[in-house]
Amino acid sequence: MGALRLFFISENQSSNTVEVLNERLLRTCDPEPLGSWTLDHRLLRSTPSSIDFQGPWRYQHLLRLGHDPSKTFVHVADPSNTEDPARNATIAIPFDQQSAFANLLTSKYAALWTPKQTVQVQNGHAYAVGEFIIRLGELRLVGVQQRHLGVIVSIQETVAPDNDEPKENGELAGPRADPDPDQLNGEGLRQVQDDIEDLWKQFGISSAKELSNERPDGSRGGLFEDIRLWCELLRLRG
Length: 238
Prior knowledge:
Pfam family, one: Med20
GO molecular function: transcription coregulator activity
Structural class: alpha+beta
Shape: globular
CATH topology: Hypothetical Protein Pfu-838710-001
Subunit structure: Component of the Mediator complex.
GO biological process, one term: regulation of transcription by RNA polymerase II
Number of strands: 10
Largest sheet: 10 strands, antiparallel
Order of helices and strands: EHEEEEEHEEEHEH
Number of helices: 4
Strand content: 25-35%
Subcellular location: Nucleus
């Protein structure tokens, strides 16, 4: 699976808008535009089991990525879980079933799950730079306020798809196949991380929340582990 790094630039860094970051990227990297990029994320939190319950909370995420638009990923996470991976589950459902599934959670299972927040990426853009795809956009809270929360930047190593599924705006639909064997050696993995770091430096950001799918041994997980990474970033203050 290809390398993935996610960055969240908080709202208090108001000078680092999507327009400013786009301009820096276009000036320094001469990227190939791939069109617009979107993201939709709905977060639910487990309902307290008693009036004095203090946690830990469990979270359920419904995530749709614009570069894999036919699916909605459902991820259930228990932050206190360190030993039983089965308690952290990820599945993919057809996107056209997302509304029905969300209605099921908020009606039939309302005693178990409480809606917390819904966010979207707006004014999003995707670019190809060498063997990487860079996606960035404004993260906004959906609802009465439509509050701006910050900017998300994703830098992902491109991996050839293993089928002929349609692609959105000419962009690769996302990682679906293992990389070439020569990419699996330690030197190759390190070079990829160095290249991502160099791309990130082009944005000139002094501080950002950062997550990576690189494991301690240098390897990377599969698609569902990447989804877990997105959900961890998007939980914010949920």
